[in-house]
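User: Here's a structure from my thesis project, written as structure tokens. My advisor, Dr. K., wants to see whether a designed sequence matches the one we expressed. Can you design one independently, without my sequence as a hint?
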């Protein structure tokens, strides 16, 4: 595109006629992606649901292509969005779960491709499960996540998600500053995800259907964005995609939420695509996957599709150049395998059937049994075997020699916070993607799974005794359950029954010797019992298993201090600060220890850093005052004491 200065010079020289110039420099279409988390297609008005009002989404659908049979390849937020924005299946990307994996930087994303084409790129995220630490920020100039895991306490866990009105506020603010250039904006609305807490008036209007209330609220935020586009004259030249990342079971098949099964209650999602200059509504019956969205957008923009992309462009069927419903779609969930050491589930869906590969295989005729309630596999084994072969071929087709995702440690703070959103953050099973039919079938463990989920929710609300009772009941079904023993350890620790916590963590490590979080928490529990030798051993092991665990390094330093091993403590605190330079507690510990050793200047530097990171921490201000006094800086010391006093009485004087 010509710069404004060059354009002015050329016009002054009379080298261009204005009409021809306008045609030559017409801006490429803008791109807006709206993903609404946990959105069932059959809970939108435009998909035939009569008990909800979604006027904005319905209006968009009335001028767009609406896909009746769109499916996610995985009913979990992070891997589903990875499929959307890389056009690849989890079998290649390696993104199977909501934790423990990070998008490989070598993978192209829609944002990275469009950024290379000169687009301004922005994403505004509604939940910490899509935090930039998982890699989906690649290619975005502006990625608004801003979830501070380290400082969150159980009293403000709602900060792990951001309500849709705040997401829209930030998105519209960015758009208002950037709409004059070609842009790609992704707005992620998390509201329909559990817990269901719609604001007024939706909380009253849908008081008996709070899930629907969240969807109606999300619809209102979609309306704000569309209204902005129209008010600025952008709508006609903007490619808009609205989709869910997965659905919600709402009790079907015994599953309250999503992620555990691969029935269509959680796989079927809405997909609405509005092409610039096309207002004619289309209702398309073809099977489509969320992996198709990236290549569709790129083809519509006449941009080359990266070779790794596995989805297929939907543009041919949208422009009526192709009509093919013989496609087969792949889906999976590894949540039972990764977190519970129960079998994973993989499925293949056709226009007529869904086949689910499990220890007890399942086959459903979707034309007569859309709710998937009658398993036909025992009656139609030949059909089941044919679809099993097709599934095997798809897995082979979509896989590579090795999966691309980077493995990450299970950050203790992150895992604890994600539990507030219903994510059971532990690694109780295998991360292998090789099928093992000897593992328990998730169908036989759904009651245990829901019991554990309820126990997690109670623990998050401080109801540790009731949570412990449920977990103990779950052990009757699965006595060797790694996650249950681990969660019991957490509960006993919070109940200050530290010896019982030690015993539970020891049991975990008998079953899974390299389980990092269990090693880490066992170290903390040993410290609470006064066994600092064992605490030191476990915390050192935790760092060996996960070199990013700054909390383990910090607590190792504290354990060394209890043993009066000052040089070792100093080294551990330095390691914690090196791993996480913004970890205020490590800088404060270094400052206090250095002051003890007579390193006054170094102490002041560390304590100033800690104070800058946590300006409302009274203890840090008091420690800094002590160091400044030792340096003879009385006036500055008094100022720090004043700040400490204000921090204690709740006023902010910084």
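Assistant: Designed independently from the structure alone:
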């Amino acid at each position: 595109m010509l710069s404004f200065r060059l354009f002015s010079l050329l016009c002054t020289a009379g080298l261009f006629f204005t009409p021809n110039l306008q045609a030559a420099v017409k801006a490429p279409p803008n791109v807006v992606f709206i993903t609404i988390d946990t959105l069932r297609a059959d809970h939108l008005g435009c998909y035939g649901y009569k008990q909800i009002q979604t006027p904005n989404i319905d209006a968009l659908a009335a001028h767009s292509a609406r896909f009746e049979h769109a499916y996610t390849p995985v009913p979990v937020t992070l891997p589903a969005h990875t499929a959307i924005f890389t056009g690849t299946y989890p079998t290649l990307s390696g993104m199977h779960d909501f934790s423990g994996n990070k998008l490989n930087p070598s993978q192209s994303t829609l944002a990275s491709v469009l950024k290379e084409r000169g687009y301004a790129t922005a994403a505004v995220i509604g939940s910490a499960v899509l935090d930039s630490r998982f890699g989906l920020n690649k290619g975005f100039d502006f990625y608004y996540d801003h979830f501070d895991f380290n400082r969150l306490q159980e009293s403000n866990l709602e900060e792990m998600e951001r309500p849709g009105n705040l997401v829209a506020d930030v998105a519209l603010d960015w758009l208002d500053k950037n709409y004059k250039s070609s842009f790609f904006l992704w707005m992620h609305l998390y509201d329909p995800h559990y817990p269901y807490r719609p604001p007024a008036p939706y909380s009253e209007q849908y008081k008996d259907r709070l899930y629907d209330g969240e969807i109606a609220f999300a619809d209102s935020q979609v309306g704000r964005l569309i209204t902005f586009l129209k008010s600025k004259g952008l709508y006609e030249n903007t490619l808009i995609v609205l989709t869910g990342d997965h659905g919600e079971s709402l009790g079907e098949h015994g599953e309250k939420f999503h992620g555990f099964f691969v029935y269509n209650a959680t796989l079927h999602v809405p997909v609405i695509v509005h092409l610039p200059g096309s207002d004619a509504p289309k209702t398309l019956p073809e099977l489509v996957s969320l992996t198709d969205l990236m290549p569709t957008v790129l083809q519509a923009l006449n941009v080359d599709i990266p070779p790794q992309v596995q989805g297929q462009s939907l543009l041919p069927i949208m422009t009526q150049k192709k009509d093919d419903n013989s496609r087969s779609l792949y889906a999976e969930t590894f949540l039972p395998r990764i977190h519970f050491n129960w079998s994973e589930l993989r499925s293949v869906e056709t226009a007529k059937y869904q086949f689910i590969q499990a220890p007890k295989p399942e086959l459903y005729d979707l034309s007569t049994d859309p709710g998937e309630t009658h398993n036909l596999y025992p009656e139609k084994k030949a059909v089941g075997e044919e679809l099993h072969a097709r599934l095997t071929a798809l897995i082979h087709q979509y896989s590579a020699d090795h999966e691309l995702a980077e493995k990450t440690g299970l950050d203790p703070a992150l895992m604890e916070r994600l539990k507030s959103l219903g994510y059971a953050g532990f690694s109780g099973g295998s991360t292998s993607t090789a099928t093992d039919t000897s593992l328990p079938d998730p169908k036989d463990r759904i009651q245990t799974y829901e019991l554990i989920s309820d126990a997690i929710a109670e623990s998050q609300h401080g109801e540790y005794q009731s949570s412990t009772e449920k977990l103990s009941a779950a052990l009757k079904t699965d006595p060797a359950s790694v996650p249950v023993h681990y969660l019991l350890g957490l509960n006993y620790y919070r109940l200050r029954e530290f010896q019982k916590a030690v015993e539970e963590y020891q049991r975990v490590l008998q079953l899974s010797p390299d389980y990092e979080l269990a090693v880490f928490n066992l170290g903390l529990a040993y410290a609470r019992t006064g066994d600092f030798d064992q605490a030191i051993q476990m915390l050192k092991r935790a760092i060996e298993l996960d070199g990013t665990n700054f909390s383990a390094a910090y607590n190792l330093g504290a354990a060394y201090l209890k043993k009066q091993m000052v040089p070792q403590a100093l080294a551990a605190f330095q390691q914690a600060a090196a791993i996480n330079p913004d970890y205020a507690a490590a800088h404060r510990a270094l400052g206090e220890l250095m002051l003890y050793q007579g390193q006054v200047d170094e102490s002041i530097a560390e304590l100033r850093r800690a104070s800058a990171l946590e300006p409302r921490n009274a203890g840090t201000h008091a420690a800094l005052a002590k160091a400044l006094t030792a340096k003879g800086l009385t006036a500055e010391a008094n100022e720090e004491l004043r700040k400490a006093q204000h921090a204690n009485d709740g006023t902010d004087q910084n």
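When you compare it with your expressed construct, this may help: The two ends are 47 Å apart (CA to CA).
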